[in-house]
Every structure is written in structure tokens, then in C-alpha cells.
Amino acid sequence: MLLLDGKKLADELKLEIKQSVDALVAAGKPAPHLAAILVGNDGGSLTYVGHKVKACEQVGFQSTLLHFDENITEEFLLNEVKKLNENPSIHGFIVQLPLPKHIDADKVLMSVDPAKDVDGFHPVNVGKVTLGLPAFVSATPLGITKILERYGIETSGKHCVVIGRSNIVGRPMSILMSGQSKTGNATVTVCHSRTKNLAEVTRQADIIIAALGKPEFLTADMVKDGAVVIDVGTTRVTDPTTKAGWRLKGDVKFDEVSQKCAAITPVPGGVGPMTVVSLLLNTLQAAQE
To answer: Which of 117, 119, 206, 231 is catalytic?
Structure first.
């Protein structure tokens, strides 16, 4: 069984990104500048944004964090997005989700300049990805394609089952896997909460991408021998034996499934680190254009 080590790969890619940044700066150009808007104090969001800021430091990026109280108005937030759109020193920025319920997240994301939308959520970028045109690919799907590419996982002609149909992971992943690319040309089946006989479908898969947010949902009896399993899940599960009082669980029952599959991503240390580094890759791309 091959462990698809996302943390190790992310560290390798950070070194490559830093070399590109050093070359940019040596040529007299500014270092890539990534900004993040964070509203409120959601624990997961604070941790994730903290990882992004640290990653920027590691590769020589400039970074700006705009942290606002959860009681700000939608109008205020839209104005902050407008400022970032118009700031020539900012190459890319993200609006960390989730946003407070009184703010329309779709409206906010639609207001982001597609040329600075390094999260790849704007309909312009989503549309370009669908058509196979150059675009910012959302970070988690991009990270998964990098794992498949760097570990030499063959996708062409394979049957890929994506469990989950979110706009952030499931849908874009199904498009990328079926597209004409190095990590595409697969036959893709998308499964979700309404799928009947789900286990019958997953047992036919050469590649399974589990992105439904239910801890340890995918068990050994749902996976055929020799399959490749990508676990996108990151759910905090109460665990009094840990210092934090919780631990991260993936969507895959790792101990069981790892005994049957040919390759698998762990949680933590799999897709998560690659999501952060993919945001850096998109920001570097924005700075180079």
C-alpha cells in the first residue's frame, strides 16, 4: 500500500514555489501578495487562515489578514472586497467561509475580481475550468490533481467515483477527472445522498474520492482490492484522550480500507496540506500574469 503523503509533497512544492518567488524578486518584480478576509472567530477558519499566513512566510509571499467582527454588515464586507479588487499590490485574495448567516456568501464571492479569485470560486473561473480553459482551479481539487500527478497515479481510462457533489470539491473534481489532462480522461460517477446502492457503485471504482464530510463513512466492504482512495474529509471528532479534546477524522475508515487499497491519503497529512499549497500556486500564477 502506497501512502500518498500530502504533507511531504506540499513541502516539496513550497520549495519549488520559493524558487519561483526568488526569481521574480531577482527580476525586480514584487513578491506575490495574498490577502485573506476572515469574519468572526470560527475555530476551524482561524486555524486554516493561520496555516495560510504561515505558508506565505515560508515561500516568501507577502500576506495580509483582514479580520473583522462577526457583526459587520454585508455592505461593509462588499466594500472591503472592492478595496482589494482595486488594490494593485494585492495579486490574489480569499474570503474565508463560512460567513455569518446575515451575509449572502454567494453575493460576496460574486463580487471578487475573477483575476484575483485564487480560491477559484467565481463563476468565471468555474466556467473556464468546465470548458478546459486556463483558470484558477479551486484549491482542494487542484491539490488532489497534484497528488495524483506527483505520485504517478494513472487516471486515463479508469473508473473514478466521487462521493459528494459540493461546488467546492465534488463537482469541480468530477469535471477535472473527466477532462483532457494528465490527471483526467477518467470515466466519472458522482454519488451523493440520493444515490441508491452506493456500495455497489464504489466497489466498481479504480479511484474513489470521498468528499461528503461524514467521518469514517467509507469502509473496507465498499472498496475493491487495489483501488486508489483519496480522503477529503476533515471532521473534528470528540476525543478526551487528546490534549485538544478532539481529533481529525477523514471520510474513510483508514485502518480497514488501507489494507485493501493500492494507495491512500491519510487524515491528517493528506489532502489538507495540499489545499493550502494549491492556494499558493494560484497566487503565484496571478502574480506572474
So the answer is: 119
pLDDT given at position 241: 87
- Give the DSSP per-residue string, 19-86: HHHHHHHHTTPPPPEEEEEEES--HHHHHHHHHHHHHHHHHT-EEEEEEE-TT--HHHHHHHHHHHHH
Considering the domain delimited by 29-113, tell me its CATH architecture: 3-Layer(aba) Sandwich (3.40)
DSSP string, 119-130: T--SHHHHHHHH
139-272 shares the fold of 29-113: yes
- Which residues, including other chains, have CB under 8 Å from residue 215's CB and lie 6 or more apart? 233, 235, 237, 249, 250, 251
Active site residue 19: no
Whether 242 has a pLDDT exceeding 90, the answer reads no
Any catalytic annotation for residue 285?
Answer: no
Please report, for the chain, the start and end positions of each structural domain, with discontinuous segments joined by +.
29-113, 139-272
From the list 134, 67, 81, the residue with the least C-alpha distance to 110 is 81
**Residue tagged active-site, from 14, 52, 146, 249:** 52
- Is 96 an active-site residue? yes
**Residues sharing a CB contact under 8 Å with residue 187, sequence separation 6 or more, in sequence order:** 157, 158, 159, 160, 178
Query: Please, what is the end-to-end C-alpha distance for the chain in angstroms?
Result: 40
CATH of 139-272, one of 3.40.50.720, 3.40.50.970, 3.40.50.2000, 3.20.20.70: 3.40.50.720
- The answer, yes or no, to whether residue 209 has pLDDT greater than 90, is yes
pLDDT digits (tens, 9 = 90+) for 104-127: 999 999 999 999 999 999 999 999
**With contact defined as beta carbons under 8 Å apart, do 34 and 56 qualify?**
yes
- Nearest alpha-carbon partner for 94 in 86, 84, 106, 104: 84
